[in-house]
Amino acid sequence: MIIILTIFFTTLLSAQTLDLLYKKAKEYEQNGDFKEAMLAYKEIANKERNINRTYIDEEIKVTNDVITENLNPIENEETVETIEQILASNFNLYPYHENYLFPISYDTRKRSDGRNQMETKFQLSVKKPIISNFFGFNETVYFGYTHTSWWQLYNESAPFRETNYRPEIFVNIPYISSDKTALKGFKFGFLHESNGQDEPKSRSWNRLYLESYFQLGNLFAIPKVWYRIPEKEIDDDNPDIQDYLGYGDLTLVYPYKRHTFKLLLRNNMKFDDDNKGFTQLDWTFPFFGSKNTFGYIQLSNGYGDSLIDYDKEISRINFGISLSR
Q: Which positions, given as ranges, span the membrane (predicted)?
């Protein structure tokens, strides 16, 4: 009961504070003081996130207090703080790219390696903030990890046909201006991608990349360019990968009510017989009224479906659910 009352009054007071902040932010906007307005909106976003975490944090705190009371006395305060941190197991992990499960992932063409055209595909993707505003640009440095697997679930032995691992370090920098420009921010980082297999199926490459974010009404445009870090010829598993995946891509995102539509376009920019590209269309939509689980349909065609198939043209239809977007 104490927890419930604490949560209730905390939420009530926080809501009142948010109302005042919204009024203040609107006043700043009306007076043309966009910098102060952006700071106010940033404070609102932080407070809303704290409200959403109140219940979980309170449960964790009560559980930890019970465990801590049963521990033998420890005099050093820093040691006590370390123990509480271990008990909380709070690593501040957040969703990064989509986290999804496609029980139905269908390749429209038969392959010579004997794989089943119907398989299961899933992806896990998280990020962890490491440090913020170190250089004074409101930037945040993140570690990200994305794991994508293609699982031959409908084969008799149900092997994992391919898994791609993508650890990365990246920096997000918001672009804050008194003028409401379309440009909203930048992101740059280092990305490693590999499939963890031995020769001759081994595939890997390393890239430096730069993204920028633009908003045009409800439409968000995210152009991305990359530079492949060269490898020794003897160590290069896929020396011609850029002939198929090119040097960048463009993502368009259009949220509409509780739906999102996303289009990914990639091309090697060779306008001749060697032209290679990739197109992917994603649609997420409400899943039986859930606020954190979404129905997911994904259609794709072109080169680069996975690392092992980077040089093969694949048309794929996926149906399933997403836990983030």
A: none
